[in-house]
């Protein structure tokens, strides 16, 4: 890391913190995790920005779908929201609109505007950073996303308690589905066993009848003078 970059970082970090706190009303407890999210150079911690972005991308999609699900609209609408809100173009536009672009840390030799892909990754990384720094508070993440315009329109902010209830409902439905599938498989297995037993009984009866007929024929042949 160059001395020039290390001199700039503290000031840039302070400004970035102020910006995000103004946007979402969230205060970072650990400044390093925010710096990891903004640092696209990999000079501080290798792939720190990309690792946070991978986490943030998953959380972004979850919150979008968590907002969409109570609307009762078809599955296609949920996919459309994820594709539109979570697209690189939309995330990069949000970063530019709200001034995040100015605080993205790039390589010292970089010139010109920050690329769309880098901005998109940085927004996802910040979402991941908020999630971890807030001790996995999805409501805090939702507030930040809403400030950037990254939530489903018309759904509003879902309170943390309601979000936990919705998550529990998803888990309950998933468990019910698994249990129904298991019951179905058990019933199918029972039906198969019963059918097999019936076939075996019929087979045994036929074998006994055949043995009896053979015995009768043998007896008749032996009894004929």
Task: Give your account of this protein's structure.
- The chain is mainly α.
- The chain folds into two domains: 147 residues, Ribonuclease iii, N-terminal Endonuclease Domain, Chain A (Orthogonal Bundle), CATH 1.10.1520; 32 residues.
- 73% of the residues lie in helices and 0% in strands.
- Helix 2 runs antiparallel to helix 6 and helix 5 packs across helix 6.
- The radius of gyration is 32 Å and the shape is rod-shaped.
Structural descriptors:
Ribonuclease iii, N-terminal Endonuclease Domain, Chain A; rod-shaped; ribonuclease III activity; RNase_III_dom; 8 helices; disordered N terminus; mainly alpha; 2 domains; 225 residues
Quick take:
By secondary structure, this protein is mainly alpha-helical.
SSE order and pairing:
Elements (H helix, E strand, L loop, with lengths): L2 H22 L6 H8 L9 H21 L6 H11 L2 H10 L18 H18 L4 H10 L12 H64 L2
Q: Ranges with pLDDT <50 over ≥5 residues? A: 1-8, 157-161
Structural class: mainly alpha
- Any idea what the shape is? rod-shaped
Number of DSSP strand runs: 0
End-to-end Cα distance:
115 Å
How much of the sequence lies in strands comes to under 5%
Mean pLDDT: 79
| Whole-angstrom Rg | 32 Å
Share of helical residues: over 70%
For the record, what is the CATH homologous superfamily label of the largest domain?
Ribonuclease III domain
Number of contiguous helices = 8
CATH topology of the largest domain: Ribonuclease iii, N-terminal Endonuclease Domain, Chain A
Oligomer: single chain
Secondary-structure element sequence?
HHHHHHHH
Instruction: Supply the number of structural domains.
Output: 2
In CATH, what is the class of the largest domain? Answer: Mainly Alpha
CATH architecture annotation name of the largest domain: Orthogonal Bundle
The main β sheet shows up as: none
GO molecular function, one term: ribonuclease III activity
Organism: Hortaea werneckii (Black yeast)
Pfam families: Ribonuclease_3
InterPro entries: RNase_III_dom, RNase_III_sf
């Amino acid at each position: 890391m160059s001395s020039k970059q290390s001199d700039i970082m503290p000031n840039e970090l302070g400004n970035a913190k102020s910006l995000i706190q103004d946007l979402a009303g969230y205060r970072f407890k650990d400044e390093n995790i925010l710096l990891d999210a903004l640092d696209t150079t990999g000079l501080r911690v290798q792939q720190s920005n990309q690792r946070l972005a991978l986490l943030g991308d998953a959380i972004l999609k979850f919150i979008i779908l968590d907002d969409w699900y109570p609307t009762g609209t078809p599955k296609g609408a949920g996919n459309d929201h994820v594709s539109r809100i979570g697209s690189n173009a939309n995330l990069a536009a949000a970063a530019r609109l709200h001034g995040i672009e100015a605080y993205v840390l790039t390589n010292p030799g970089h010139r010109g505007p920050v690329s769309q892909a880098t901005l998109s990754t940085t927004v996802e990384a910040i979402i991941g950073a908020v999630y971890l720094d807030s001790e996995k508070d999805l409501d805090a993440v939702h507030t930040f996303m809403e400030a950037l315009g990254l939530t489903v329109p018309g759904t509003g902010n879902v309170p943390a308690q309601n979000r936990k209830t919705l998550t529990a409902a998803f888990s309950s439905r998933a468990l019910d589905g698994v249990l129904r599938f298991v019951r179905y498989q058990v019933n199918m297995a029972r039906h198969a066993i019963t059918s097999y037993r019936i076939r075996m009984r019929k087979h045994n009866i036929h074998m006994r009848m055949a043995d009896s007929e053979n015995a009768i024929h043998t007896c008749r042949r032996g009894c004929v003078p």
